[in-house]
Amino acid sequence: LNDRPAPASGEKLFYLPIHDVEECFKGERLLVVTDERLAELFGRSFSGSKLLVVPEGERAKSWHSLSSLFDDFVRLGVDRSWNLLALGGGSVSDLAGFAAHLWMRGISFSCAPTTLLAMVDASLGGKNGVDFRGYKNALGSFQRPECIFCDVSALSSLDPVQFASGLAEAVKHAVIDGESYFSFLESLLAEGGGAGAFSHPRCGAESLKRLVTESQRIKLAIVDADPFEKGRRRVLNLGHSFGHALELETGLPHGFSVSLGMALALRYALRGGLIEDDERSRILRLLAGFGLPVDLSLLADGALRARVSASLFMDKKREGATMNFVLPRGIGHVETARIPVEALRSFLEEAWK
Amino acid sequence: LNDRPAPASGEKLFYLPIHDVEECFKGERLLVVTDERLAELFGRSFSGSKLLVVPEGERAKSWHSLSSLFDDFVRLGVDRSWNLLALGGGSVSDLAGFAAHLWMRGISFSCAPTTLLAMVDASLGGKNGVDFRGYKNALGSFQRPECIFCDVSALSSLDPVQFASGLAEAVKHAVIDGESYFSFLESLLAEGGGAGAFSHPRCGAESLKRLVTESQRIKLAIVDADPFEKGRRRVLNLGHSFGHALELETGLPHGFSVSLGMALALRYALRGGLIEDDERSRILRLLAGFGLPVDLSLLADGALRARVSASLFMDKKREGATMNFVLPRGIGHVETARIPVEALRSFLEEAWK
């Protein structure tokens, strides 16, 4: 790790057991931020480091958690010679990466993602942050981690819901990237025993490794070309405008909300004649095959719809009366467009019945 | 302002009356962050904008102020289409720039500095942040403003102490840059009526304009070459390690603390045979001529010395047992070196009597 690149130049990927990560920081100060469950599971692998425990899940991403972390930094005397490692899912790395970026204008930060979602998506690309007064990721920055340590075998400790949540981002990557990765994901369904019956213990180690590395490759290529999301990187928000609103209002897991968000974006594109119906169906079948929800009638509740509709107005992608919205036009064909928020709202009224 | 550069590419400088700044944002949403005194002085010049008032001076730079600003952003529905303008001194721009950088991962940010210190130094280069639990600038980031609006004539509203405080940074720039700017500053002393008698109403408008623009040129050239302070930019911290510790413990104005910090750094360099005594004396004479303190016996107090010494350990420039320390070796000859914190502490014991 001695010749670490400048943070702006992108994260280095390592594939090794979690137990071997501490060794990579030998001779340096290491501070591990993790949650309670993971501290119990993996704490012994970081016996030479300081451990800080934050709340599990989205609750980690609060102004209060951030303030508590800084209190701990003061207590421990953390300075720029320290390395911070986020051990956990996307919530842990979003919080810890944000804290590392701000403390003393930036200390070294790396991730050991323990969920599929974090490994293929959240830990990569440097978006970090916390929620504020109910606004998801209202505060945050772009600061890419130095190293990502991936223990693919540790993913088997995931429950099926968490695993499926990560698959939603993999499908998103495939829709953006194109046929080759998309049909690979479809082949996993057969491997897993057919649509609806897919679950991760049935996904072989080789397939899992390929899924992780391909998704990482796709995401990093996009991020490298546009690190601050001024243009092309926006396509990675496919399904996320509706998705974030749903996540916020329903508490559904991130990937489930993104899956529903993609379903909505697909329907929006279909209505505008921007995608063929069979392409759309093929994407929906893959999502559903992975056990992800695609049918909003699950959530048929007028009050909920009104809240989701309102929270679209709080989305970061909104600028004044329009929003940068990601349009899926086919597998390997995703675009962004500025769409009036009102058009999205009235679509929601009509589509969500 | 329509073709604003990406924030990473450096700030654009404009010289115009404060009253004309609002016009530059015509047709856009403008949010002005300022303090109470300035809101009274200049509020009418921003009648078409939202005004947010923060505490005066260093008290603005607190975790609490930051949280309050974000509450205001929520209340006003601030999104990425808004522009934030810091109207004030370095404390206001440090706080507002930090808030702008974090809100929705970054909204447009510009400065209208109202002090000499902010105009020649604090508002330039993108260092922002707040204090945390007594650590000065413990939290912050590098994010350069888009535009700096300089109303040089408004500096005449400064009290002499604030003006002298800014001159300390100008002297620092001159020591870094070399003979030409340094002797220009010396010539101001004659213009002002001789050493010790200098004050800003005696500094002619032309001289003041040259002082502002030369200091800006020197600082921006250094920042452009090393925006994230990985190397050469560190020389801009001349006098700031001791200076921040003094500022924190005594409450002296920033420039006064930096002046004493430079005096200490000069003595440290002299003791190590790194600077000629007549070069050192010439720098001290200029500082003193501008009404800045250079004699630590003013602060001869054992308890204070112990606190200043302790707070060196909390400086961001410390990494483990050493610190990046800036050594003045002559006019136009400034270097950085890694020096053991203990060596600086024992020097302080010996030097400060």
Characterise the protein shown here:
- By secondary structure, the first copy, chain A, is of the alpha/beta class.
- Chain A has helices at residues 36-42, 63-76, 90-102, 116-122, 160-177, 179-191, 205-225, 240-250, 254-271, 277-289, 302-311, 341-351; strands at 12-15, 29-35, 50-54, 82-88, 108-113, 130-132, 135-139, 147-150, 318-319, 322-330, 333-340.
- In chain A, the strands form four sheets. The first copy, chain A, has a four-stranded parallel β-sheet with strand order 3-2-4-5. Chain A has a three-stranded antiparallel β-sheet with strand order 9-10-11. A two-stranded parallel ribbon of chain A has the order 1-8.
- Chain A is globular.
- The model of chain A is unreliable at 1-8 (pLDDT under 50).
- The A-B interface holds A 6, 8, 29, 63, 67, 70-71, 74, 77, 79-81, 101-106, 127, 129, 132-133, 135, 137-142, 228-230, 316, 318-320 and B 6, 8, 29, 63, 67, 70-71, 74, 79-81, 101-106, 127, 129, 132-133, 135, 137-142, 228-230, 313, 316, 318-320.
Strands in their spatial order, largest beta sheet of chain A: 3-2-4-5
Give the low-pLDDT segments of chain A: 1-8
- What's the overall geometry of chain A? globular
Described by its quaternary structure, the protein is: homodimer
How is the main sheet of chain A built?
4 strands, parallel
